[in-house]
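hey so i finally got around to running the thing on that chain from the lab meeting. sorry it took forever, my laptop kept dying and i had to restart like 3 times. anyway pasting the input first so we r on the same page abt which one it is
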Amino acid sequence: MNLQLTPPDSTQLPWVKLASAQSVSPKSWLEVLERYQLSPHELLKENTALCEKTKALIGQISQPHVDAAFKWKEAGQNRHIITLDSPFYPALLKQLDSPPFVLFATGNLELLGQKQIAVVGSRRASHQGKRIANDFSLSLSNNGVVVTSGLAMGIDSAAHQGAMAGSTGTIAVMGTGPDKVYPAKNIKILNDINHNGGLSITEFFPGQGPKPWHFPRRNRIIAALSLGTLVVEAKIKSGTLITANLAADLGREVFAVPGNIFHAYSEGCHWLIQQGAKLVTTSNDILEEIEVYPEQISLGIDEQDEKSAANSLATDKLLASVDYDITAIDVIAQRNALSVSQAMASLLEYELRGLVAAVPGGYVKLRGK
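ok and heres what got predicted. didnt touch it at all, straight out
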């Protein structure tokens, strides 16, 4: 019996087509869409009015990649294609200069809208390092924070396992297509994530295996998704420090666990602390920075009402601090006496409610006072 595939979603198809042109960056496509003031659907229909250079870009679209994307989605349960215009697309990810047009996701999409902390480190981590990553991740998860990592061996694996043992879960950002597992040893962890309340995502199309240049691209997504990045163990020259630097460049918090000064895998953490990363010894150090407090879990009714009233006042002030013209994030933070990371975390909720929108250069108010 032949498998009857559902026709591709007409709203998703244009985005998937643009993303399938692997040699064309999302930033280049965004510039084209801006220049012609067209949607992806309109762009792919308006061939006669386009310049030769733009037609050449469209010529890079790969129909085999497009077909593979929708076949993958239809071939299993709980699989999703998230395009740049989807309500599930993470608001923080849109702040990248070149955000992925498409994310292939398996599992619980609701995690994308929750507060995330990236936990990263060496693939050849010490036993102590893996225990630290596991303990931090378990505590963060039990306090309602999603732990995001890269599905690698060592610290990444320990972080995912710790978070899955908690109450919130984890997001695995992959450096391969959604149907590939790298390293292969982590197939059990990935299956546990996909089928037990976690989520795996990737910008790479089905069928694409691991390539050296995939992992820096994966790291930028890990850094962008999270309010902060925790580094547990890392050498000075490592992909982990690249992720931490990306997080800092995006205005996110960077946390580092100190270690033995004679241990090579402590060098990266100590260097980050010297550069201004926050030294942390417990998960509470992170929770306080992103304004999540363990004691909130057991608040009484009266205390909850008091918090709700305070949050309502904070909401009005924060929304009022965003203009209908582009308002820089540091200006919003200054107006509300918040750190940049705190302001961004608060604004994420407003984006999901359609009150503000993230745009190049900051935020604009869509509606409200």
